Amino acid sequence: MDKNKSPWEIDCKRYIGFIDVMGFKEMVAKKTHEEVGRMLHQMSYMKDILQQVIVSPFKKIDEEFEREERIKSVTFSDSVLFVTKDDSLSDLLVLSSVLEIFQEAAIQRGSPTKGAVSYGRFTADFEKSIFYGQPLIDAYLLQDQLYYYGIIIDNEVESRIIESLRNNEVEKKLINGHFYRLPTPLKSGKVQHYNVRLSNLTEEQIEDMYKTISGGVRRYVDNTIEMYEIMNKK
Q: Do residues 113 and 149 lie in contact, with contact meaning Cβ atoms separated by under 8 Å?
């Protein structure tokens, strides 16, 4: 192991991103077993690639360095858990980049997701498949309230974002490129929250989301379009 690299700690304070695939039960009921399997394998392959290629925004473009695994993930049926190596701002920004691309790719493939990012002490033992801690509970409960295909930031992460915005101009510029504080559609109504940026979607891809659902749940699509337009006007 490179002496300059710290080991991956099983138990520490870190960021986690919890992502849920929307409409999974209906998907299983309507599609063949093979079709569902292909979709899940594609998502798994995509997340594995992302966590390897996304690097810290603090690295200079021309700087030579050996890639270090900063994000790990695990899939539970229709949910994906992303875990950072530690609680640095750098890891939070790497996580947000991974989640942003993952979310956009899921929408483009017709299997939209929603999720939440939380922070705190979390145990992630990938060798023994043991994952637990308050951040996972917080992220799960928060994403369950979300009423658009997006990724919301909880108060624990928000407090660390605000601290960085106050103290460092370089960090402020980086943060503002990753997160948007907006009236966010929840099941109870709109509430101010930070959200991970959503971009790089075409009008056709957004409109295609209407093909998968009918009735009141189409509000998810309406809200996603509204949030996307607001984020990309900034």
A: yes
CA 52, CA 192: separation in Å to the nearest integer?
Answer: 32
pLDDT digits over 204-214, tens only? 887 787 877 77
Q: Residue 132 and residue 122: Cα distance in Å, rounded?
A: 6
The H or E element spanning position 131 is strand 130-132
Angle at alpha carbon of residue 147, lines to 145 and 148, rounded to 5°: 135
For the chain, the domains span 11-59+66-231
Q: Are 210 and 221 contacting, i.e. CB atoms less than 8 angstroms apart?
A: yes
Q: Which two tokens stand for residue 100?
A: 């942003």
d(CA 218, CA 94): 31
* CATH code, residues 11-59+66-231: 3.30.70.1230
CA distances from 114 to 21, 186, 212 (A): 7, 12, 16
> pLDDT of 162-204, one tens digit each?
888 787 666 677 777 789 999 999 999 999 999 999 888 877 8
Q: Tell how strand 79-84 and strand 11-21 pair up.
A: antiparallel
Q: How far is CA 178 from CA 68, 116, 168, 189, 233, in A?
A: 21, 14, 16, 24, 14
pLDDT in tens, 96-147: 988 988 888 888 777 788 999 999 999 999 999 899 999 999 999 999 999 9
> How many CA atoms are closer than 13 Å to the CA of 68, on its beta-carbon side?
19
| Distance in angstroms between the alpha carbons of the first and the last residue of the chain | 43
